[in-house]
Amino acid sequence: MTRIFGKPLISQQEINRRIKDLGRRISEDYQDRDVVMIGVLKGAFAFFADLVRAIQVPVELDFLVVSSYQGSSKSTGRVKVISDLTVDIKGQDVIVVEDIVDSGLTLSFLKKKLLMRHPNSLRVCALLDKPERRTINVPIEYVGFTVPNKYVVGYGLDYQNRYRNLPYIAVLDQDGEQE
Ligand code: 5GP
């Protein structure tokens, strides 16, 4: 039996189309270079898997596991690295792949941490950008979609570790149920 998860904010088709565009742009920008793509888990797992397959230059992959929300829909502002990189990024061209940039605290923390390892370059690709909530200015070179100030789930994004497997992006209402 199929469970219905409400009306998507961003459909599967829109996501697929946008990822193709991003993959094309990244392939053009990095055509003479190898690139290290770093997926920030868990939220970026679905986006990362689809994005890297849309890129046509050689890529090396690695992952960081971070936790900033600890299962709730409100930011605690605390970022914890649960699992670090296994590759050395010194002198490498690196792209950090995030699910969503909200306050910007997680990304800003990660960028500082990665820059201390002296990559040749460091850019950011985020599936979703929620600019209304930003408390710290952090540039994002590649953005999938700009979203309103609502808590979104699906396509990797969770609410209390659920909904990550939705193939589209949906909005949660204030009670934690989908609209
Ligand atoms: P920031 O540090 O920018 O406030 O938050 C970044 C992290 O918080 C994201 O990587 C994501 O895990 C989580 N987050 C922020 N906004 C949302 C949202 O609307 N939905 C979900 N599921 N997670 C979010």
Question: How would you explain this protein's 3D organization?
Answer:
By secondary structure, this protein is of the alpha/beta class. It has one domain (8-172): Rossmann fold (3-Layer(aba) Sandwich), CATH 3.40.50. It is built from three helices and eight strands; from the N terminus they run H-E-H-E-E-E-H-E-E-E-E. It is globular, with a radius of gyration of 16 Å. The chain starts with 11 loop residues before the first helix and ends in an 8-residue tail after the last strand. The mean pLDDT is 90.
Structural class of the helix and strand makeup? alpha/beta
Major sheet characteristics: 6 strands, mixed
Domain count: 1
* Helical proportion, percent range: 10-25%
By DSSP, the count of extended strands is: 8
Ligands (ions, cofactors included): guanosine-5'-monophosphate
Which residues form runs of ≥5 with pLDDT under 50? Answer: none
Rg, nearest Å: 16 Å
N- to C-terminal distance: 21 Å
Order of helices and strands: HEHEEEHEEEE
CATH architecture heading? 3-Layer(aba) Sandwich
The strands making up the biggest β-sheet line up spatially as 3-2-1-4-5-6
The CATH topology is given as Rossmann fold
Number of discrete helical segments: 3
The CATH C-level name is: Alpha Beta
Oligomer: single chain
Principal-axis shape equals: globular
What share of residues are in beta strands?
A: 25-35%
Averaged pLDDT, please? 90
